[in-house]
Amino acid sequence: MKFKRQFAQLSIASALIASTLGAGHVASASSAGEGPEQQATMYGDTSHPKNVIFLVGDGMGPAYNTAYRYFADSPDTKEVENTAFDDYLVGTQQTYSDDDKENITDSAAAGTAFSSGHKTYNGAIGVDKKQNDLETVLERAKKLGKSTGLVSTAEITDATPAAYTANVDDRDKKDEIAHQFYDQRINNQHKVDVILGGGAKYFGKENGNITDQFKNDGYGVVTNRQQLENASEEQLLGLFADKNMPLAIDAEEDQPELLDMQNAALERLSKNDKGFFLMVEGASIDKQGHANDITGVMSEME
C-alpha cells in the first residue's frame, strides 16, 4: 500500500483537468451522479491548475479493483475495507477508439485521447484519424513554461508515455519515437525534462546513441536505483531495462520501483514556480493481465 498511500496525498488530475491547459477537447465520458466537471472540482482548481499529475493504472478496470479489494482485505474484520483507490473513485468512463475495424481501445488510442482529448484509431500515437499531429497536454504545459515528466514501468517508448510527446502513425515505430524524444523541441527546449522507465535498447548505439545526446545536453543519465538516488541534475533520463522493467516482486535490489521514479520526478519538477505536468504509468498491471498472472497484477497494484 506504500505506493498508493503516498499518491493519496497528492492532487490527482483527470483528463478534464488536463484539458484546461488547452490540449484540445475532452473525449466523451459518462459517470454516475453529478456531471464530470462538478466532480473534478473536488480535486482542486480546475480552471487554472498549477500542477497536473496524471496517473495511469494500465488495464486496471473494475474487475481488477474488485480483485484487489478482496486481496487486500483483512481476514480479521467482518467488513471489506476500502482501498486507497476508493477515495478517488468518482465514476466510470466509456472508452472506444475511432477505428473502422475495431471498437475496443488499445493503449495507443487511449493514450492519445488522454493526452490530447481527441479520439483516434488503434495504434496511433499523437495523431488523429487522418494522421494529423495533435497537441498534447504535456506540450501545452511546456509552452506555458511548466516542467514536464514521463514515468512508466514499460518501455518509455511504449504507447502510453509515447502518446504524450510523439507523433507517429504506428505504435510499433519505437526507434522513431525514441528519436522524437530527443529531436522535438518547444521554445528550443526538450519537451520532457524527466524521462524514467524501460526501453534502453531504443536509446543505444543501434539507434544513434540517443542517450549520449541527452547527456551532452546536460541531462543526468542513470540506469539503477543508486544512480537515481545520487543524481543531482534537474533534467534526467533514467533507463532501467532494455525493454519493459521487471515486476516489483521479481526485481533485483538495484532496480528502482515505480514509487522511487515518481519521487525522483516530483523532486525535480516541483522546483518550477510555474508548475509542472507529470504522467505516471503502472504499465505492468496490464501486461500481467495479458498473461493471466493474477499474482503479478495484484503485486503491481500493491
UniProtKB/TrEMBL annotation:
Entry protein name: Alkaline phosphatase
Cofactor(s) listed: Mg(2+); Zn(2+)
Stated family: Belongs to the alkaline phosphatase family.
Active site: 107
Residues bound to Zn(2+): 58, 286, 290
InterPro entries per the UniProt record, alphabetical: Alkaline_phosphatase, Alkaline_phosphatase_AS, Alkaline_phosphatase_core_sf
Superkingdom as given in the UniProt entry: Bacteria
Organism field: Staphylococcus pseudintermedius
